[in-house]
Amino acid sequence: MLLILSQEHKEHLRLLSDLQVEVAREFCRISLEFILKGSNPKIYQTAAQKLGVQVNQVKQAVEGLVYLFNESSRLMIGEIDFQDSVMTLGFSEELNKLLLQLYLENRNEIRRLLGELSLELSHYHNLEWRFDVQLASRSLHHQTEPQILLKLHTKRQGDTDSQIFQTDPVNLVHLTSELENALAEMKTAHCRRIVRNIK
Amino acid sequence: MDINHDAQEGLQLCGESVRIPEKSFKKLVEITFDIILGKKDETSFDASNTLDSVNPGTLKEAYYGLVTLVIEAVKTDSSLTDISSYLEECKWDSDRIEYLNKVFSGTRPDIQALLSSTRTVFPHIVDVDWRLDYYVKNKYLDKVNKPTYLISLKTEESNKNGYSDVEFSCSMEQLQDLVGKLKDACKSLEKASQM
Q1: How many angstroms away from the CA of B105 is the closest CA of chain A?
Q2: Which of residues 40-59 of A touch B (CB under 8 A)?
Q3: Which InterPro entries does the entry link to (chain B) (predicted)?
Q4: By the CB < 8 Å criterion, does A183 face chain B?
Q5: Any chain B CB within 8 A of the CB of A176?
Q6: A165 vs B125: CB contact, 8 Å cut-off?
Q7: How far apart are CA B92 and CA A113, in angstroms?
Q8: What residue spans of A88-138 are helical by DSSP H?
Q9: What pLDDT, on a 0 to 100 scale, did the predictor assign at position B118?
Q10: A142, B76 in Cβ contact below 8 A?
Q11: Cα B155 to Cα B163: distance, rounded to the nearest angstrom
């Protein structure tokens, strides 16, 4: 799948083709830093003065690169498709190589960051268990009731939460076998076919 | 058996056939057990014609004595012999003792179950629901392509009616971890049961 770049986007990136590769590399570094750590508009002013261009041009070039890296990572563009997509920008071969290298190096990290933005349900983190036999309570002495205490830790966007449950042996076995069924389901022909076909 | 003085007096009244005739006694015992098990409430006493002949104060005391006796006996797992000898001390005749023991034996397991659930407990897991999704993409990310499980634990709490759900999601690896830990628990339970 190729990345379709709009005319406007290409205009914004045009500045880069007039620059030396070393300077372009600096632009790439800044744009990646923006993606990973957040933007810092002060840099535009300094860079614009040094290069003798409009502040806006610098801003657009950096943002253009940010968009290029983000979109390619989002769509998980392959190596060859990325090269072909970038080719339409008319950069030097050296710069194209540099873009590819930086894209491949940072793709996973960018995808991880993008993943954090998406809606997230609280997910399983850890489970602790304890096996008790209840012997007596205020309302009933002389008991022998086996019970299992479960402490379930869940995580949601970095916040951990834990809840305590209890259950009896029969329900524990039922719970375990039911979740084993769930795991086994993924290995069925039906699920495997779906997984194979969604690429 | 450790029964307080007031309740003991109530039991003594309950054994006096002059104050509580045979028929009323049986009705009283029947209603008392139903109330303990939550099948009836105390308005049943007013509704019953059989109990009209009994002085309301006496009835109240006798009821109080009976409830205390039954709960205490189940709580401490007293034998029928213990109960009988205690009631003999309260001057009950053997017919009444026998009748009470008969009703008591029949309902004891239910009362035990009731008392064992009368306590503070953590939500009790009684079932689990699961759903398997293939996570394809979201607003920010294409080709996520990972199996995702949604797990919903059904729990019961003694002071609430019905079930509540506890939901969380799991990746394949996380579910494997969870199942592994649950299996450990099952195994250790199995070992313990063979001891």
Answers
A1: 17
A2: none
A3: COMM, COMMD3
A4: yes
A5: yes
A6: yes
A7: 80
A8: 93-117
A9: 75
A10: yes
A11: 5
Note the pTM of the prediction, 2 decimals.
Answer: 0.76
Whole-angstrom Cα Rg for chain B: 27
Q: What is the pLDDT of residue B91?
A: 92
pLDDT attached to residue A118? 82
**CA atoms of A58 and A51, how far apart (whole Å):** 9
Q: From the first residue on, what is the mean pLDDT of each consecutive set of 10 residues in chain A (199 residues)?
A: 87 86 89 87 85 88 92 92 89 91 93 86 94 90 91 91 95 97 95 91
What are B39-94's pLDDT values in tens digits?
A: 988 888 888 888 888 888 999 999 999 999 999 999 999 999 999 999 999 999 99
Nearest to A145 among B116, B141, B193 (CB): B116
Answer yes or no: do A140 and B145 touch at CB < 8 A. Answer: no
For A:58-97, CB contacts with B below 8 A are 74-76
CB atoms closer than 10 angstroms to residue B101: 15
Paired residues of A160 in beta bridges: A155
Q: Which of B134, B165, B179 to mutate to test the interface with A (most CBs of A within 10 A)?
A: B179
